[in-house]
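Work Package 4 report. The design task specified in the project plan requires that, given a folded chain encoded as structure tokens, an amino acid be chosen for each position. We show below one input record used in the internal validation round.
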């Protein structure tokens, strides 16, 4: 197995674990009365991320790794772990709004309103760059930008649907896959 294939196997396994965690957290949030917002665009987000990963396997599994981009990708993984740890049981891939919940303001959420989306945007670009696929990185970054514009708008509407002291927050409760 090449180093590129090993990296892609890691990312694939990581995403699988994250989907299992998100599914568990979503079920727990629903049991506590959370409601989903923006469900209509969720299949597009899933398809986008699946196509991105499948395409990387198809095009990049035998490529040489670019060490500098690999280091950036590793730093993004630290950021990803920080987001998930900060949101704890509120992290999911769906926009789940829990009435009465307060906005998450710990971890990276102290500094940025949507840190997970910054990390995801970075990953969408950086992993293909680490595999020497700059056009792939650009194409998926553009598509992801459209998806994130829709997603963030849906989250902001969901957050704004509750009176100020009783807001649940999309980023405080859900993040993309």
């Amino acid at each position: 197995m090449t180093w590129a294939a090993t990296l892609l196997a890691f990312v694939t396994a990581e995403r699988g674990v994250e989907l299992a965690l998100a599914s568990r957290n979503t079920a727990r949030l629903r049991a506590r009365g959370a409601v989903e917002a923006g469900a209509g665009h969720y299949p597009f987000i899933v398809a986008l991320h699946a196509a991105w990963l499948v395409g990387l396997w198809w095009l990049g599994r035998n490529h040489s790794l670019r060490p500098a981009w690999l280091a950036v990708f590793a730093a993004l993984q630290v950021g990803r772990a920080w987001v998930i740890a900060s949101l704890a049981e509120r992290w999911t891939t769906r926009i789940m709004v829990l009435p009465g919940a307060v906005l998450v303001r710990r971890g990276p959420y102290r500094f940025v309103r949507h840190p997970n989306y910054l990390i995801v945007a970075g990953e969408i670009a950086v992993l293909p760059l680490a595999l020497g696929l700059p056009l792939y990185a650009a194409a998926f970054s553009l598509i992801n930008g459209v998806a994130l514009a829709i997603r963030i708008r849906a989250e902001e509407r969901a957050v704004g649907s509750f009176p100020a002291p009783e807001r649940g927050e999309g980023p405080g409760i859900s993040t993309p896959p």
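Confidence is low (pLDDT under 50) at residues 165-177. Validation will be extended to a larger panel in the next phase.
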